[in-house]
Amino acid sequence: MEVLERRTAESVEYAEAAESGEAADAAASWRAFPAAQQPDWPDPAALRDVTGRLATAPPLVGADECDDLRGRMAAVARGEAILLQGGDCAETFAQVTADSVRRKLRTLLQMAVVLTHATALPVVKVGRMAGQYAKPRSSPLERQGDVALPSYRGDAVNGLEFTAASRRPDPARLRTMYEASADTLGLVRSLARGGFAGLSQVHAWNRGFVASSQAGQRYEALADEIGRSLAFMHACGVDTSELGTAEFFVSHEGLLLEYEAALTRTDPRTGRTWAGSGHLLWIGERTRELDGAHVEFFSRVDNPIAVKLGPRAAADDVLKLIDRLDPHREPGRLTFVVRAGADRVRDVLPVLVEKVGAEGAQVCWVSDPMHGNTTTAPSGHKTRRFETVLEEVRGFVEVHRELGTHPGGIHVELTGDDVTECVGGGNALLAADLPARYETACDPRLNHTQSLDLAFLLAEMYRDR
């Protein structure tokens, strides 16, 4: 679908607003700062042409939706809600199919029902979807034998195939990313607002999972409780029609600043500026330098934003990030996603939480148990052990329990497919099984069964608090 060719009155209005005031500042001020992890685009004229078209295209998300999410994230910061954020490590254009999107959404909805019942709190559902097409890399080059080519930076930049033509950064891919994101977002909205997201149906899916999982007996009691709760509501004549829909938001790492700047818009009603590429965007561990272009850019937009914090995150730097990104200390504005590793989280997290709390900042604390726990299997595949992922989540929850603070939720790389990328879990995937369906374009993801295992086990942790 040629989304960029649509020229509606709305897109003209947004384009005019983007050329003035705050949007112009946000779209341009970052250029005066060092920008890490940006592709070396070989054709600047082609890049300007694509970003110029994007600057006049309708935004993918609206300001009202971003404000709604800020409100939901404020509840997370206050301890009144839980964040569930998940999806592919790196989306690919080939995966933009109805079945693929449906399976990911189904997995997240199933996880959310379990967490909602266990915590008695609303679950804010956010997908790593409709924009997660770019990835930072530890090296600009990949070597195979005597050949060195640009590293694969995600479908938004270049191709996975190890050839010179495929690995050449191509600005036309930014246009494809916009169109793929629009298609994904349209399908997500349709499914979330339709009968697909019905609570009774999602519970039926979970009952099927419990029946087929090797660890199902452990989860059966919680599944039965959910079933009895639904039966009680029906018996009382409760109108459950509103439970047939789900509120769902999308997110991605705001890595490619040319793309993000082109989709920056000003709301003509309020004068506020927002990144129109997604509801929630995050700054990665490799791009959170205080004097860097990413922090500068995201300091000027009003979306809810997140920052990834690795095991070497210093408390003073975290406080400075708050000053830059959340100077007014507004709950819901800023989330810290901690990716310390299972062996470090109990040492790293307490200092950060205590220092931030002492400053009076009400941020959301979220666990990313994936990125600090990547290993290499004997077969050469990058993988993660489910039990290690679970241990980091457990450490995250325990630290907050000891400090009397709120463990705000999880941010995980997952898929709704039965891939073989992470080992362990209720069905005991082995390292020898990895080659069977190792399909990720970048890092290993939890499969559908492992994702639901994690949701049930996390529900037990929250109940034990």
Secondary-structure map:
Elements: H1 9-18, H2 21-28, H3 44-55, H4 63-77, E1 82-87, H5 98-119, E2 123-128, E3 141-144, E4 147-150, H6 164-167, H7 172-193, H8 199-212, H9 216-235, E5 248-253, H10 257-262, E6 264-266, E7 273-275, E8 280-283, H11 293-298, E9 305-309, H12 315-325, E10 334-338, H13 345-358, E11 364-367, E12 374-376, E13 382-384, H14 386-403, E14 409-413, H15 448-464
Parallel strand pairs: 1-2, 1-14, 2-5, 5-8, 8-9, 9-10, 10-11
Antiparallel strand pairs: 3-4, 6-7, 12-13
Short recap of the structure:
With 465 residues, the protein is of the alpha/beta class. The chain has helices spanning 9-18, 21-28, 44-55, 63-77, 98-119, 164-167, 172-193, 199-212, 216-235, 257-262, 293-298, 315-325, 345-358, 386-403, 448-464, and strands spanning 82-87, 123-128, 141-144, 147-150, 248-253, 264-266, 273-275, 280-283, 305-309, 334-338, 364-367, 374-376, 382-384, 409-413. The strands form four sheets. It has an eight-stranded parallel β-sheet with strand order 11-10-9-8-5-2-1-14, with helices on both faces. Strands 3-4 form a two-stranded antiparallel sheet.
